[in-house]
Amino acid sequence: MKTILYVDDEREIREIVTLEIEGRLDVIINEAESGESAIKYLKEHISEIDLIICDYDMPNGNGDSVYEYLTQFRNVEKENIQIPFILFSSRDLDEIQESMPGFPNKKIDSHLQKPTNVKRLMSLIEEMLAKGSGTGTGIGTSTARAKIPMKATISTQPTQPTQPTQPITNASANASIRDIKYCKININRLLNIDNSICDIFRKENDDSYQIIFETDTVLDSSLILKLKEDGIEYLFIKEIEFSFFCDFYARQLQSKLESQDINNEARIDQELDGTMFIADIMVNLGLNPTVIKTAESILKSNLAITKQCKDFFSFLQKMKFNKNYIYEHSLMISYLSNLLATEISWSNSSILQKLSMSALLHDIVFENKNHAKIMVLNKETIAENKLSKNDVAKIFKHPIDISSMVKQIKNMPPDVDQIILDHHERPDAQGFPKQISAEKIHPLSCLFIISEEVVNQLYNDFEDNIQNISINQVQIVLEKISPLYNIGNYQQMFAGLCKLFSYKK
């Protein structure tokens, strides 16, 4: 069995990707959360590795440091041991050429850009494993795995069902060649579901796990909150049950979003959690039926709240902030664009769905919130935000990349790809990527663009107290953007905003 070292600083992403790989290929995955921890592991266990899959941007050592160490090893070993390297990152090859000289060695390296789909990732892994000449046995030991403190493993033989609250340890179970592996789950996710379809564990130490919730039990929110107070961020489930848990979680989320029995504040919180949930999967593994169903549930919930929250301020007061700017601002754009569409009598469900889906996906590739805040790319913006050439290229390309990805989604509402492609255009033709003027841009794109402009201006000016902004503060924003947006195809949209917020031009 082949052994892969997978390096990524995002814990949930590692869990999802690892589950997909081990579920589809006969391989063992060891994980690292940074360049430094990967190199530390490789110094002791490089001969056990058959392939390295590595992200680029990580704290405590980027992917270039891992590649540099591997290159040094290759130079020493020459043709004896050649371990393939896949750079699995959202960055373009052009962005990393300077920091990774010699990459890719076409004989043994490859680059796969996020987002991608599972099939493409699996195909590349199989291809690269076939190219390598590593000596990894894939057997490994619990001691070796403990060198990388990310993936919890213990050596046990499944026996009789464990009684609640009794720790599982190496002393209390028969040893087995094959370890039982565990995946972390953020404890906050458990607050959004009612019961569990699998055992959920608390990690006591490196080889001991205690059952907190048994299969088919109600999840006691008071106990979950107590664990959070004690500093517990993650609980664990068996890796073999992780995919079932993800599907179950998605169904629970969809059920709550479609329920008529929760208040709008709880519904909006569920939407925000759902938006983050689908982004975790979509950015790294592409789309799957679970993602699409979750997105559809969020859209239905969006429309329901739009009908109930007759003004923007009632929505803001019900929304919980400071979870994640990218997804918070996406939800705000969804609601404001829906309210504006309703104000100008474009309130049929097809248009509202297009606007909400565009809001949900338009910045899905960003991890850096400061990049998502940038509306225009000019010398002043680049200097003010200290953007590198690579940053500028990534920001410039993201409407194109996401639009292209959306085109591949079966049954996606028409025009969503166009709205996303256009969302950084400006009336004065100083936007990107196509510099489309106010007279030539599609009216639906105009509506989305001006909604995003208002939301971003509100964040820029009133971020510390955005939940409690007043109508006067919105009017200040409208006054500021009036010279730019009260022209061409934007005029109808701007007039609608003025009416929505009682602003007299």
List the helices and strands and how they pair.
Layout: E1 2-7, H1 11-24, E2 27-32, H2 35-45, E3 51-54, H3 63-77, E4 85-89, H4 93-96, E5 109-113, H5 118-131, H6 142-146, E6 153-154, E7 167-169, E8 180-186, E9 200-205, E10 208-213, H7 221-229, E11 234-238, H8 242-258, H9 264-285, H10 289-308, H11 312-318, H12 325-343, H13 349-361, H14 369-373, H15 379-384, H16 389-407, H17 416-422, H18 443-462, H19 471-485, H20 491-500
Parallel strand pairs: 1-2, 1-3, 3-4, 4-5
Antiparallel strand pairs: 6-8, 7-10, 8-11, 9-10
In the CATH hierarchy, what is the superfamily of the largest domain?
A: Hypothetical protein af1432
* Low-confidence runs of at least 5 consecutive residues: 137-178
- What is the helix content? 40-55%
Largest sheet: 5 strands, parallel
Count helical runs.
Answer: 20
Query: Radius of gyration in whole Å, from Cα?
Result: 25 Å
Shape: globular
Counted up, domains total 3
The portion of residues forming beta strands comes to 5-15%
The order of strands across the largest sheet is 2-1-3-4-5
* CATH class label of the largest domain: Mainly Alpha
Question: Span from first to last CA?
Answer: 70 Å
What is the number of E strands?
11
Mean pLDDT: 81
Structural class: alpha/beta
- Output the CATH topology of the largest domain: Hypothetical protein af1432
CATH architecture descriptor text of the largest domain: Orthogonal Bundle
Q: Any overview of this molecule?
A:
- With 505 residues, the protein is of the alpha/beta class.
- It has 3 domains: 2-146, Rossmann fold (3-Layer(aba) Sandwich), CATH 3.40.50; 153-244, no CATH class; 259-500, Hypothetical protein af1432, CATH 1.10.3210.10.
- 50% of the residues lie in helices and 11% in strands.
- The protein has helices at 11-24, 35-45, 63-77, 93-96, 118-131, 142-146, 221-229, 242-258, 264-285, 289-308, 312-318, 325-343, 349-361, 369-373, 379-384, 389-407, 416-422, 443-462, 471-485, 491-500, and strands spanning 2-7, 27-32, 51-54, 85-89, 109-113, 153-154, 167-169, 180-186, 200-205, 208-213, 234-238.
- The strands form 3 sheets. The chain has a 5-stranded parallel beta sheet with strand order 2-1-3-4-5, with helices on both faces. A 3-stranded antiparallel beta sheet has the order 6-8-11.
- Strand 1 (2-7), helix 1 (11-24) and strand 2 form a beta-alpha-beta unit.
- Helix 10 (289-308) packs across helix 12 (325-343).
- The longest helix is centred in the middle third of the chain and has 22 residues, at 264-285.
- 40% of the residues are buried.
- Mean pLDDT is 81; it is low at 137-178.
